[in-house]
Fold this protein.
Amino acid sequence: MALNVNHGAQGSSKSQFSVQPFDSLNDVNSQVNRWQTQASTLPFRHPDRARIAHNLATYHMSRYKATRQKGDLDRAIVEYAEALLRETNHPPLNILTFEHLTRALLFRFNDFGAREDLDHIISYFRHLSNLPLGVAGIKRLDVLNGLSDALCGRFKVGGRPEDIEEAISLLRHVITMVPPGTDGHRDFTCNLAIAWNRKYEQTDKSEDLTEAISHYRAVLTSCPLDHPSRFSYLSHLADVLMSRFERSGDLNDLQDAATLYQESLDLLDKEHPDRMGVLMQLANVYHARFMQTGDSEDLEKAISRYREVHLLCPPGHESKDKLLGNLGLSLMSRFQNFGRMDCLEEAISLHRAALRLCPRGHPRRQEALRGLAVAMHARFCRTHKIEDLEETISLERENLALTPPGHPMRPQMLYNLSVSLETQSRWTGDMSCIEEGIEHLYEASKSVKSRHPDSRRILHLLAVNLVQRFGHRGADKDIADAIKYYRTSISLMPEGNPEVSPMLSNLARGLRFLFFRTGDAEHLEESISLSRSAVEYPFSSARDRLIPALNWTITAHSTRHSSALTAYRKALSLLPRAIDLGPTVQTRHEYISGQIIGPLRDLPMDAASYAIESRAYEDAIEMLEQGRALLWSGMRSLRAPLDHLHEVDRSLAGEFTEISQALEGIITTIHVRDFVQTPAGTDDDDVTIGRKDKFARDLAEKRRLSGELDEVVLRIQALPGFENFWRPVPFRHLQTAAIGGPVVIINLSIYRSDILIIRSNHPVVHIPTSTNFFHRVTNLALQLSETRKNYRLESKKYDRVLRQTLEELSELVGQPVANRLMELGIPEQSRIWLCPTSVLASLPIHAAGPIPLSRNLLGSASGQPSLLIVEQPDETLPGVDSETRSIEYLVGSGSVTRIAGDAATPENVIARLPMHPWVHFACHGMLQPGRPFESSFLLQHNTHLTLLRIAKSHLPTAELAFLAACHTAELAEDGTPDEVLHLTAAMQFSGFRSVIGTMWAMVDEDGQDLSEHFYGKIFAAGAQVASYEQSARALRHATQKLRTKKGISLERWVNFVHYGA
């Protein structure tokens, strides 16, 4: 069976690139051979040669329609011409042959763009219209319709207004000759709508598009619900509504198009040849709607529909490149929305496959080049590998070379290249890129119509480039022109477009520069006002408004504007909403790692610094609590204490618990990377794009559960006394953490750094720091990290750098805190809790002071413990057995359960943890850079008890965890310090009130030595009750003992850190 592909002849929808069965190709081949044989046996002047040539041409045309081989079409045209020249005595055959020749030429123009045929086609149709067509069985209406089709084609390539006007006039005349309500009337009306749409594509006049829509609606209104062509008319109307949306940005047109495509799809069974085209268009609508609204449900629908199209699309189909490219773009959007690198890698592979299907000379090569360039640009922005940016620019330059001056796509290609050049300038400092970009954008702005959607993007990017050049040159004209172009581009934006928020923010940023240049307060006030409007713009997503909020904080903070605290509060309220779109903590972490960088990562600390400068210390502490450790905070909110709610409304408490537990089950899921990159040169059919998508299912379920939970929370907040349930924690509640001793917060910000001391029932105490505090601390962190990377932990070089680090930390933090505590009457050897921020969290600050220090803020409990020991000795950990036997002796064998050997599996450990308030791990700890939730304890048979599996546990009676394993409190260099993603934090989150971890690799024998001193101190003879509250003092005692041991380097005792109570 051969495939007959509809290539979009007159009257077909853009969505109809259909596959139709053709069962008689063998018969056609036989007929071609038969008539070729007859032609070869006849003398050159034989009278039957005209009839034979006509029949042979007809079968060549039949075969062309089945195979789309241009050679058959060319032969048919030659044979029709021969028949026409030879036949002089048979007018009906002459007319029929002439009509067939004209139709064949029209095919060649429509399918291959043979412009040289156009004038002949129009001339032939005009001649035909004056012949007695009835004798040849040809309808005059069909000839006039063909003439209008050819005129539309010539208008499209030549832009002659008289051609389209004549085409419309002809079709209007034809429609009057056909009874309303008939198939003919609908078909000709549909063609009239196509003509109006063609006119709109050239004139960009909305009234032309309105005419097209009106005629399509008339066709649909007259079409019976069970008519076999109804699906096609629905798709036609949806096509032009999409065109109007692209022009106006009216979301209603997009909604209507989605409804129409879905209705069309519902009329087609799964085997219908047009299903694939309608499905593709529906996917395009969903993706476009996602780009407008940011609704991830639409994005997942688009990806699902594209994958379904792939299953329907046969190998070698002419539109396979479009499918691969569209799916690639939708996966790109998923990457941008959720930060998933596997989606970006799959998108790149798909775009490369699409480009392989579009060799030089292919009509869609530009589209394929652009798709790959977008994906490579996105990967550069994430990984900063310069070769990706270089490939992006190379692809864009090739695209530009394919669009000479005057080409309708040239403005878009100039814009695309300028985007990449602007990125290159920002990363390399090469101002020649900006100069070239500005030159391209000026050319593009002159070539595009003022109201065209491309115009606003071109002008906006031109303004961005001019601002960047102003930053280097300081030319007043650049900033003045930039603001002018910003204003123009915003004025062209339709209401409801999500791009408005970042555009307003950029204009505000330009005015900020102008204020700094001129000192004119009006510029500052307008900048602040625009920033506020950008942040509050209701049609932009939380992510789209987060950067404007950040820019607002920068402007207000740097100018000491009265709106600064408001700006920070707005930004901090948007931050958790911006990262909450992903279904799991893994996807949220990927987004934070890739997008929450630079000033965004420092936002909570910068907010606190401004509040401290304003002496609003309590506000500063609330802001730090709100903006740091967002991943843990998001999960912790699902475990909100409900004791009081149980007393007031047991049913509502049960609903909250049930939904939050189901939501936590999804949030703590790990999506294993299931995309394998296709090797270069592999056929595109090897790209795996038809698989089931667990991510999409989890995302849909997370959305459903989140909606239900939000509704339950609103009902809880409506109860008297529960107004603040699930809201940011006020300072008066945070202050209760200091009941057991002072809490010391060290805030690190480029604006200013400060130390705050929280005491129960006392005002916050402020300790100012030196002006170089920030730079000294960041340099310490960098120096220590680089030394640890380049030298062994026990090397003299590392020991020297670590010692210097501790000395400086003591000067910067330890001594000032100790002195102020003494002034406040806090006795020596008192417990305090340290809360470092930013890179301070990666430094051994616990070892920098003269008093016992712990990190984090948790409550208290006590009791005779039951200890679970998890041990996994091997040849690299020979001391584990001695370590655990020593612990068992000190604690008492009756209170100890040991899990070792085959019993030490993740499942068994998790099952035993709820039975023991204390646990001691003696095994390998594994750090996973870039994948913190996969950091783990290595157990039996190379199984892993991961951070996320631990975090899933809910252990309300847990008290003390001693993690005698490497890296359990280490922050990965590529991580985010304030998210504190390590095994120690996971143990604390699961319920352990006190946790001892290691900041880097540990020496095996230190586990035994430290454990003996630690447990010996807690279970010392005469001790009343062993309590986890003694753990910080016990650790201090143990590390002091370890320090006295001969040959112990500094890093070996500094390594151990205490978190919690």
